[in-house]
Amino acid sequence: MVRPHHFTINTQTAVDNAFQRDVSESADHAACAYQEITRAAEMLRDLGVGVHLFEDAGTDTPDAVFPNNWFSTHAGGHIAIYPMKAPNRRKERRTDIIEMLKRQYRVQDVIDYSGLEPDGLFLEGTGSMVLDHIDRVAYAVKSDRTNPVALERFCTHFNFEPIVFPAEDAKGVPVYHTNVLMCVATDFAMIGTDLMVGPEGWQKVVRRLEQSGRDVIALDRGQIARFAGNAIELQGRDGRILALSRTAHAALTCEQIARIEASVKIAALDIPTIEMAGGSVRCTLAGIHLAPRD
Questions:
Q1: Buried b / exposed e along 256-277 (16+ C-beta atoms within 10 A)
Q2: What distance in Å separates the CA atoms of residue 140 and residue 272, rounded to the nearest whole number?
Q3: Rounded mean pLDDT, 25-44
Q4: In total, how many domains does the chain have?
Q5: pTM value?
Q6: How far apart (Å, rounded) are the C-alpha atoms in residues 64 and 1?
Q7: Among 37, 53, 77, 253, which lies 20 to 30 A Cα-Cα from 102?
Q8: How far is CA 223 from CA 44, 141, 208, 218, 229, in A?
């Protein structure tokens, strides 16, 4: 996780992020965002989740609080670094984070795709892709931030099958990142079926998830707008946890919560200020799938 010191929304990403709110920079927002990440990290640690918390003191990286977009880690000791669409998001890439991972975990290689940026080929990490680590599927909505060539390269290197599908909000605007639309956990998947365009998504995504044996929990447009799809399963001290925001948790029905709690404990983190920037809990967490060093 990355704790922001000068939080504000990113004007460079506002064009295609319909989840982002028009909020001016203020000291109050910066202080609230700082406290929200602090409390979220503490809550996850209390549940037995290992958290590496880094500081972002810069003023030119407004989305640094969302580190999952510029790197990801993978079993077998692999790290991927991604090409970002917005120029100021490229500044979020930090060698100190990669070096920390090398020191504390077994890292075999780092594959850097950022060289694709000059050619306009973008793939914004586990925002662009929702990865099913069990069935080895990379789900991705069609978006300017998810180039099919870059996606194919990643899937070839990391042994994932790409499944690409269209999704739009009520105004016909394409969903900018897949991870605001869906979450794939061990025993269930949550997905905004109302935003999937035509039968293509149902056939390729929902059927595939059902075939994997998962309970597919359909989310409506209102729930997606409140970040109910932006969740992530984590390993806690006493079992698996589904981390999502309080905003998202309040949007779920009792029946949906019961289906989720059949296999995981829910951890609802309070990050309303962070959500003004167009992302929620999943976006604030870059997962670690590396083996720790002895």
A1: beebbeebbeebbbbbebbbbb
A2: 26
A3: 88
A4: 1
A5: 0.93
A6: 9
A7: 37
A8: 23, 18, 22, 10, 8
